[in-house]
Design goal:
By secondary structure, the protein is α+β, with helices and mostly antiparallel strands. It folds into 4 domains: 33 residues, no CATH class; 195 residues, 3-hydroxy-3-methylglutaryl-coenzyme A Reductase, Chain A, domain 2; 100 residues, Hydroxymethylglutaryl-CoA reductase, class I/II, NAD/NADP-binding domain (Alpha-Beta Plaits, 2-Layer Sandwich); 46 residues, Helicase, Ruva Protein, domain 3 (Orthogonal Bundle), CATH 1.10.8. It has 16 helices and 10 strands. It comes from Leuconostoc holzapfelii.
């Protein structure tokens, strides 16, 4: 019987692609029996380098943080930013009383007043249905917190269910409860559009703050310029986009290393960057006496158990290395790394430009690209750094000269 593509083994899928023997062997070399069970149509793994932010003080605790990223200089910048923040006493974390996800039941061409009246009358039923749908989250101290009807437009209403998912990221928990709650709205079934969680987790907004002695960022002139750069991020969407991208260099790297959904975290962050009606930087920096103070606030949905986090040993190892046992602690660490990343980038731009340090790290990738061996990379990078104009041809010629 002919198998469908999704029914094939990883090796059978590769064989069907008519690859060269060398290419097929290369794909097979990176295969994992475990990861083959996690995604569909699996053929191999794509490995991302993981490095360490060696020491950052978060909520009074020293933490070593794994970061998974392919971009040179990200981890070096995070370590530099963390060192400056540590000198100012480290990063403080402010959490909401209870972090929770929001799930939506969506209705169209319906009377908002009728939905609101119904939601008010059915509160007891909602809580009963939620507990029956997902009793395990109640055993862990979580569950449904409240339900409200929110008018989206003249014809659209969202019924928002706010659910505490404890240490799980919580998407499956929320969607399971939502699908059970849908039955309560049988009188509105013809107006029902869909049930789905929202990644805009405004009930999970976390704030991290830190301060750095002005002397460590390069003195008063650099500190003032750093603040002005950040002000551009609040006034100009072009600058804001790049500043937030740099922020997510750090946030995304830690989120990925811990097996969490970095796409959901970034989507929520960018949405929150627009919550005033104008897209702007997620951080705010100001001068306060002899210090420069930074603040970052955004919603962040992550977990320490469940899903890929529990299935992937590398995610479990990362969490163990950090010493992070609960989702709220992980939220604080991830955003602290983002603040450190942002600080390092702003300082580099304000104090002579970002390209010098960035290119030094890029030269390592270039050296590998032109075929340098592990023993040759350091010397080739040194020569590239001393060269005025650098490209692949220059690197290749220098490498050939080294080998004579």
């Amino acid at each position: 019987m002919h198998k469908k593509f999704y029914e094939l083994t990883p090796d059978e899928r590769l064989a069907s692609l008519k690859l060269t023997p060398a290419a097929q062997q290369a794909w097979q070399h990176e295969q994992s029996t475990l990861n083959a069970q996690i995604i569909e149509n699996y053929i191999s793994d794509f490995r991302v380098p993981t490095g360490l932010l060696h020491d950052i003080v978060v909520a009074g605790q020293r933490v070593t943080v794994p970061m998974a990223t392919e971009e040179p200089s990200v981890i070096a910048a995070a370590n530099h930013g963390a060192k400056m923040l540590n000198a100012g006493g480290g990063v403080t974390v402010t959490l909401p009383e209870r972090t929770a996800l929001i799930g939506q039941l969506l209705f169209s061409d319906v009377s908002a007043a009728a939905i609101e009246k119904f939601v008010t009358a059915q509160q007891t039923v909602f809580f009963s249905v939620a507990k029956q749908a997902k009793p395990s989250i109640y055993r862990r101290g979580g569950g449904l917190l409240f339900v409200v009807a929110r008018t989206v437009s003249e014809t659209m209403v969202s019924v928002d269910f706010t659910i505490d998912t404890k240490d799980a990221m919580g998407a499956n928990i929320v969607n399971t409860i939502l699908e059970a709650e849908q039955a309560v709205f049988s009188d509105f079934q013809t107006h029902f559009v869909g049930a789905i969680l929202s990644n805009y987790a405004t009930a999970q907004c976390v704030t991290v703050t830190g301060q750095v002695p002005i002397s460590l960022v390069g003195g008063p002139v650099v500190a003032k310029r750093l603040v002005q750069l950040n002000q551009f991020g609040h006034a100009d969407i072009y600058r804001a986009t790049t500043e937030n991208k740099g922020l997510f260099n750090g946030i995304g790297a830690v989120t990925l290393a811990t097996g969490n959904d970095w796409r959901a975290v970034e989507a929520a962050g960018h949405a929150f960057a627009s919550h005033t009606g104008r897209y702007q930087s997620l951080t705010t920096w100001r001068i306060a006496g002899d210090f420069i103070e930074g603040r970052l606030t955004m919603p962040i949905t992550v977990g320490t158990v469940g899903g890929a986090i529990s299935a992937m040993p590398q995610a479990q190892r990362a969490l163990a290395l950090m010493g992070v046992a609960h989702a709220d602690a992980l939220r604080g660490v991830i955003l602290a790394v983002g603040l450190a990343q942002n600080l390092a980038a702003l300082k580099a731009i304000a104090n002579g430009g970002i390209q010098k340090g960035h290119m030094k790290m890029q030269y390592r990738a270039l050296a590998i690209q032109v075929g340098a061996t592990a023993d040759e990379i350091t010397d080739l990078v040194r020569q590239l750094a001393a060269t005025t104009t650098v490209d692949a041809d220059v690197a290749r010629n220098l490498l050939l000269e080294m080998r004579k």
